[in-house]
């Protein structure tokens, strides 16, 4: 598998091939639907997000509570289509990558192509395994959302497949 490093540039995205397995390395954001909704509502109201999304990759996850000695609890992907209502706006505002599971709407695929983004899928049902790929995890915004807060995650050799790209 090819190793890739975050943040991804538009040139990096163009080099990816749909169906290609990659190992993702670097820092990304972890967030689910509640956080996406707040970010987009803020953007539509003319507010800046609590964390920059420009050049970022978001992993659609809501980690389980961690046990003593763990960096993070189980953190498998959530169903990506739940983020579809928010995705085009986030891509328009600089988001580059997304990691989740499942299909995306035609609107999202069009936005990925229009804005030069990339959608990766990863292994559903493997949250405990994927948590081992997380080397650091910190809540960076919306802590009141619990597991749906925005996390800054450092990942090493996080497995994913390129599903769609711009």
Any key phrases for this structure?
fumarase; alpha/beta; 5-stranded mixed beta barrel; 166 residues
Task: Tell me what the structure shows.
The protein has 166 residues and is α/β, with parallel strands linked by helices. The protein has one domain (2-165): fumarase. It contains 5 helices and 7 strands, in the order E-H-E-H-E-H-E-H-E-H-E-E. The protein has helices at residues 10-15, 33-44, 84-92, 106-115, 127-131, and strands at residues 2-5, 21-30, 57-59, 97-100, 118-121, 134-141, 150-165. Helix 2 (33-44) crosses helix 3 and helix 3 (84-92) runs parallel beside helix 4. The longest helix has 12 residues, at 33-44. The relative contact order is 0.26.
Helix content: 25-40%
Radius of gyration, taken over Cα atoms and rounded to an integer in Å: 14 Å
From the N-terminal CA to the C-terminal CA, the straight-line distance is 21 Å
Q: What is the beta-strand fraction? A: 25-35%
The top level CATH class name: Alpha Beta
What overall geometry do the principal axes of the alpha carbons give?
globular
Low-confidence stretches: none
Mean pLDDT: 96
Could you name the CATH homologous superfamily?
Fe-S hydro-lyase, tartrate dehydratase beta-type, catalytic domain
Query: Architecture in CATH?
Result: Alpha-Beta Barrel
């Amino acid at each position: 598998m090819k190793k890739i490093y975050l943040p991804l540039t538009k040139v990096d995205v163009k080099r990816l091939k749909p169906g290609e397995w990659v190992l993702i390395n670097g820092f990304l954001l972890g967030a689910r639907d509640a956080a996406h909704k707040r970010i987009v509502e803020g953007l539509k109201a003319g507010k800046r997000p609590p964390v920059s999304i420009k050049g970022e990759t978001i992993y659609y996850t809501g980690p389980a509570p961690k046990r003593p000695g763990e960096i993070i609890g189980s953190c498998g992907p959530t169903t990506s289509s739940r983020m579809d209502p928010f995705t085009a706006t986030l891509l328009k505002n600089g988001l580059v990558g997304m990691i989740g599971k499942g299909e995306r709407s035609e609107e999202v695929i069009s936005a990925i192509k229009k804005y030069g983004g990339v959608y990766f899928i990863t292994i559903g049902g493997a949250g405990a395994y994927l948590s081992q790929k997380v080397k650091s995890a910190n809540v960076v915004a919306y802590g009141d959302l619990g597991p749906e807060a925005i996390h800054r995650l450092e990942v090493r050799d996080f497995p994913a497949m390129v599903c769609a790209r711009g």
